[in-house]
Write a structure and sequence with these properties.
By secondary structure, the protein is an alpha+beta fold. The chain has helices at about 40-65, 70-90, 170-185; strands at about 95, 100-105, 110-115, 115-130, 135-145, 155-160. The protein has three helices and six strands, in the order ααββββββα.
């Protein structure tokens, strides 16, 4: 009797046993999806934040058993803030759908329709290392608008961010995938 397991890419191995009538997640182009996997640095930062929140929740329980309810409430709110920041850290990146391109930041999310993007290209330029103020020479996927219109954040991906540090091939694949989405859904100029 086969037991279905969920693989790392979200596809169940039950698909190998003849369940061909269900729609796979990557078949729906109207859903927002990240065209690449989160990198090890991003996952490690989120894991450390979740570990910290576990200790904070344990401290909340100890404080609550001691009877200091106001302190337990403050500690609980702080732990939930750390959990929320860990989840948001995993969400940060570029997401695509048929509607356009969405750049999710830690605090700000911006969505641009495919029709507003004139060009996506990979350029050599100084990029921020792991999002810190220090810059190094690297590659960045940038976007530009029609008629010289500038976007507030033209840099989408860099090869030195938390997703692609020391993973040049993954950066190239992600840039190519975002470019393929743009080529497929950007309207052809008349």
């Amino acid at each position: 009797m086969p037991l279905p397991f969920l693989m790392a890419d979200g596809v169940s191995d039950a698909d190998d046993y003849g369940d061909g009538d269900e729609v796979l997640a990557h078949a729906d182009h109207d859903r927002w999806r990240r065209p690449y996997r989160p990198g090890p640095w991003r996952v490690a930062i989120s894991a450390l934040l979740l570990l910290l929140s576990a200790f904070m929740l344990l401290a909340t329980m100890i404080i609550a058993f001691a009877g200091a309810w106001s302190g337990a409430g403050i500690c609980l709110v702080a732990a939930l803030a750390v959990v929320a920041s860990a989840v948001q850290t995993l969400r940060v990146g570029v997401w695509v759908s048929r509607a356009g391109l969405r750049r999710v930041g830690f605090f700000v999310t911006r969505t641009v329709k495919w029709s507003e993007i004139a060009e996506l290209r990979t350029v050599q330029q100084p990029v921020r290392w792991l999002g810190l103020p220090r810059t190094v020479q690297g590659q960045a996927l940038t976007m530009s608008g029609h008629d010289g219109a500038q976007f507030a954040a033209p840099v989408l991906l860099t090869d030195h961010n938390a997703d692609f540090l020391s993973r040049a091939e993954a950066f190239d694949r992600a840039a190519d995938t975002v470019g393929a989405w743009a080529d497929e859904y950007r309207p052809v100029p008349a």
